[in-house]
Amino acid sequence: MTDTGSSSNSWQAVWQHAWDSAQPTLSSIRDTLGSTTSPSPRTIRVCQLDTELLDQELVHILYEPLQKALSLANTSLKGRFDPELTLLIQLTLYKFSIWNLGASYGARLQGLRYSVPSSSCGPVSPAGLPRRTLLIHGTLTILVPYFYNRFRAHALSRAWPDTPSNDKRRLAWQTLTRIETTHSLLGLLNFTVFLWNGRYRSLTDRLLKMSLVTTISQVKREVSYEFMNRQMVWHAFTEFLLFLLPLVNARSIQRRITRLMSRLTFPAILPGSSAATLRSPSRKHGKYEALPADQCAICAENASYTLNLGYSADALTSLTSAKEGTSQPAADDEVPPFPIYTPYVTSCGHVYCYHCIAERMMRTADDGLESGWECLRCAESVKSADRLEAAHSDTMSEYEFSSEFDTTDMSGSASSYLGSMSE
């Protein structure tokens, strides 16, 4: 036990001696660390680039409502003063952001502000930056691009590039082109250097030594996925619509709506209608009741649905006259806009083209409507149709048969043909 206690005391003495001998070295290290300055926070490059994009988007957001208001007041002012409207917005934003706060609104969203060397002297702006520097910066970033765009538009409108080579306007245009090319090359070189060291985002900033610095000690880049989620939802919704729309029969929906609107009458809608008015029978009126008798109402309806501009102007005139109540047939030397080919008479006594009636009856069979389809002239239900025989009716002698159908035996009814097909 005595040997163990003496050995522990000897080790404690050794550690104490080592600690005491290391004290001068530790003191010098503490003094060295206390005299050094803390490193400045790093400014992320992508935040500086996002600053410019946010500023441009803000100008665009403010520009759209002003442009719409100006176009409503006077349409010609929209094209004439479009650059001046953008200039006004940019100057206003520059005054209330960089001049007063030392940073644009996009830079403030990114936690950045402008900084200039402390050696600059003279009057300062409300943001603490030299006024002379800010005036030059605003002139180079706002006024110079405005005058350049105006001058370029004026030169193009006067065809300066197409003038003779020895003309002064052609020489001025070539000088402007060289200046533009030089500025683009210098901008590319400056952007390459910016990607290397992260300072001076633009040529103007490098010329005036205005750099964007962070306003917080710890920079933490927050990534928002709201825009990405919105794009994914919209993309999925558009794909669903592209899958669903081909399955929807738009013409069937349109027919149902048209049929429903035609059945709605004022006595049925208005609550104050008398019972006698509701009980009084009235003759039905079709959509194309006033169309001349030598024209096909189904062809006219299809033309109005598809807005087929291939028909002549007489077709639209005929539709207009039909709505106004003119039911006179076409003259003998005049070709009707919607002639009846291979005329078939329906169960209600009106005449249509064979292929129009067949298409309408097959569509009704596909929809499963047992009541038939509604006649466009009398609004009665059509359940059958037969070939119109000119020899059996003197009143229908004005229908002329085309030579290509003279040898075709189509005396059977379309309804019996559909019945055989269903069997």
Please characterize this protein's 3D structure:
With 423 residues, the chain is mainly α. It is built from 16 helices and seven strands. It has helices at residues 2-35, 45-73, 75-80, 82-101, 105-109, 131-157, 168-197, 203-208, 226-244, 250-263, 266-269, 275-279, 297-306, 313-324, 354-367, 414-422, and strands spanning 112-115, 211-214, 343-346, 351-353, 373-374, 381-382, 385-387. Strands 4-3-7 form a three-stranded antiparallel beta sheet. The protein has a two-stranded antiparallel sheet with strand order 1-2. Strands 5-6 form a two-stranded antiparallel ribbon. α4 packs antiparallel against α6.
Summary?
With 423 residues, the chain is mainly alpha-helical.
Topology summary:
Elements: H1 2-35, H2 45-73, H3 75-80, H4 82-101, H5 105-109, E1 112-115, H6 131-157, H7 168-197, H8 203-208, E2 211-214, H9 226-244, H10 250-263, H11 266-269, H12 275-279, H13 297-306, H14 313-324, E3 343-346, E4 351-353, H15 354-367, E5 373-374, E6 381-382, E7 385-387, H16 414-422
Antiparallel strand pairs: 1-2, 3-4, 3-7, 5-6
Q: Specify the biggest β-sheet.
A: 3 strands, antiparallel
- Rg: 43 Å
CA-based shape: elongated
Low-confidence stretches are 273-281, 308-327, 392-423
Overall number of strands: 7
Strand order of the largest sheet: 4-3-7
- Spell the H/E element sequence: HHHHHEHHHEHHHHHHEEHEEEH
Helix content: 55-70%
Category from helices, strands and their pairing:
mainly alpha
User: Could you tell me how far the N terminus lies from the C terminus, measured between alpha carbons in angstroms?
Assistant: 117 Å
Number of helices: 16
User: What percentage of amino acids are in beta strands?
Assistant: 5-15%
Summed over residues and divided by their number, the pLDDT gives a mean of 76
